[in-house]
Specification:
Number of helices of chain A: 3
Shape of chain A: globular
Number of domains of chain A: 2
Helix content of chain A: under 10%
Structural class of chain A: mainly beta
Order of helices and strands of chain A: EEHEEHEEEEHEEEEEEEEEEE
CATH architecture of the largest domain in chain A: Alpha-Beta Complex
Radius of gyration of chain A: 21 Å
Largest sheet of chain A: 5 strands, antiparallel
Distance between the termini of chain A: 62 Å
Oligomer: homodimer
Strand content of chain A: 35-45%
CATH superfamily of the largest domain in chain A: Oxidoreductase, molybdopterin-binding domain
Largest interface: A-B, 31 and 31 residues
Chain lengths: 288, 288
């Protein structure tokens, strides 16, 4: 750690999203932790640029990947959690070996004393409790690269068993938004304004627009984006709705990013339920 | 029938849609015939304006509804199929007592010798095998007005048991489109144009636009509308898609009408599954 502190310090505010966020909405269902919308968070990470460390160590021109291992030891027969990322992302100035989270030592559950932060990529790339980084000509060979965190190389029909050779690693996050308030089944009153709030993010891209619909997805209004903005962080959005009639309504949010990506209406199903980013929906019951 | 032929003849091309069209897509499911997309059709109906017949018969200013009965006799304990429509719709020039369908006597299954055509309204209003039309100060009192063909007077949460006093008759059709070709699960080839075809209708309103999406509902292109056009009839639409990559894609159609109504992304669920008009979806598998 002393050596690490010898490099120039740098910080990034980064939204980390679990690849399986929203997996519970897969239809047909897929195995794995049945994440709803919560497997995502944002923090300010401080550490040193991995590029500086790799540069000091010396990297051969044949290097194509870095392979990371953490101090965690898996239970039972679970393989060791070893992942790799391509050298281009590893040597990007924004990829950080972080020792602080929100201006304090990283809590143990978040990777103390040192974790990798791979901004804009699915969170499993951001290895916690780093003990070893190895440079390699090939990607990591274990379960967590060969089998997990892979998606089909083309959209597949729901329920399809996809051949391993047709799967590719899932890397940068897609565009997505979720409501955080009110929650599903909330109650509102006719004529009383209710603030619909949430977050939108797009991995390595910027959020350019969030729209909200309060009429089952027929018409859309631009939500306001909060001023807070960081290259790899989510944007808060809010939209005030004054319900004009009683009933049970589905309100929706739809984000668009600087790569012109927009949230879809129907999901690209995949065997692990990764990348779920369908337009978010919350039901609100309006009383007279 | 001889008396009927004494009135001035008139024709309308009318799309008749069963109220329960798409009922099978209700979630949670609802009882009733599990209609998919087929319970709709269009024909040219020829007969006489019901207004002329009512005018000759003489209608008191207190008349508010007409009550229709047909020659069908219900099986077992099913109540007689008696329906009513408000006097305003009954005396509209376009409401027809029809004796021809597509320039021939109406086939028995379509209501020979005489059926009512209530253009733009759900098809159950268009009573077949007419034997009696009665003018009344109140709507019909039987099962098929008091219980059936009614929708909640506000959007309700899916699965809700709605109080009878909160139900209103379902009358004019909503805006809707369906694909007719290709069918669900069809195969296409990269680089080979495939024509996506279907129909769009809007009851008493006109279809002003049909859009098609071939990327899970992210982006939309205007479909071409065929020149054929009639006040109460569906419009054919077509859109040529040249798939650029292999995979399993959900293509979608979305119609908009002259009342600015557009098909929704999520359904207003109701206990009988009426009015289902969510954006249509067909899965197409593109091969290399």
């Amino acid at each position: 750690m002393k050596d690490i502190h010898g490099f120039r310090e740098t910080s990034q505010t980064v939204t980390l999203e679990c690849s399986g966020n929203g997996r519970v909405y897969s239809d047909p269902p897929v195995p794995g932790l049945q994440w709803e919308k919560g497997a995502v968070g944002t923090a300010r990470w401080t550490g040193v640029s991995l590029r500086d460390v790799l540069s000091r160590a010396g990297v051969k021109p044949t290097a194509r990947h870095i392979i990371m291992n953490g101090a965690d030891s898996p239970p039972g027969s679970v393989p060791d959690f070893v992942r790799s990322i391509p050298i281009e992302k590893a040597t990007h100035a924004d990829t950080i070996l972080a020792y602080q989270m929100n201006s304090a030592d990283i809590p143990v559950e978040h990777g103390f004393p040192l974790r990798l932060i791979v901004p804009g990529w699915e969170a499993a790339s951001s290895t916690k409790w780093i003990v070893c980084i190895r440079v390699s000509e090939t990607e990591a060979d274990g379960y967590f690269m060969r089998n997990a965190y892979r998606i089909p190389n083309r959209p597949v029909a729901p329920g399809t068993a996809v051949d391993a050779k047709d799967m590719i690693p899932y890397t940068a996050l897609d565009v997505k938004s979720i409501f955080t308030s009110p929650l599903e089944g909330a109650t509102a009153r006719i004529g009383s304004p209710i603030e619909l709030r949430g977050f939108a993010w797009a991995g390595e891209a910027d959020i350019t627009r969030v729209e909200v619909s309060t009429d089952f997805g027929r018409t859309w209004s631009a939500a306001a984006l909060d001023a807070d903005k960081a290259k790899y962080a989510w944007r808060r959005f809010r939209h005030v709705w004054k319900p004009a009639e009683p009933g049970s309504f589905v309100v929706m949010s739809r984000a668009t990013d600087s790569q012109s990506r927009t949230q879809p209406i129907a999901a690209k199903w995949n065997p692990a339920g990764y990348l779920y980013n369908v337009i978010d929906k919350v039901r609100i019951n309006v009383q007279a």
